[in-house]
Amino acid sequence: MKTGDGRNTANRQCGSRQFAGLENPPKQFMAGGDAISAVVPVLEQRLIELDAYEELSKSTNGSF
Predict the structure, then answer these.
(1) Phi, psi at 22, each rounded to 5°
(2) Which of 22, 24, 1, 26 is nearest to 11 (CA)?
(3) How far is 34 from 37, CA to CA, in rounded Å?
(4) What residue spans define the domains of the chain?
(5) What is the pLDDT along the chain (64 residues), one digit of tens a residue?
(6) d(C-alpha 10, C-alpha 58), whole Å
(7) How many Å apart are CA 53 and CA 59, to the nearest integer?
(8) Which of 59, 2, 1, 11 has the alpha carbon at shortest distance from 32?
């Protein structure tokens, strides 16, 4: 069966059942390759920034 936008509902239902059955589901789930393509570069940039300021962050332990 297709939705009004032409997408196949059977594929989504199958994916939903797989997701619901996970023992440890992810806290955030990106559905689809386009979502992954949009989110991965943002997360990679955040990791670069975290790495760049890791020592400064650790230097504040107990100093606030």
Answers:
(1) -70, 135
(2) 1
(3) 5
(4) 9-58
(5) 445 555 555 455 556 677 778 888 888 888 899 999 999 999 999 999 999 999 999 999 876 6
(6) 49
(7) 10
(8) 11
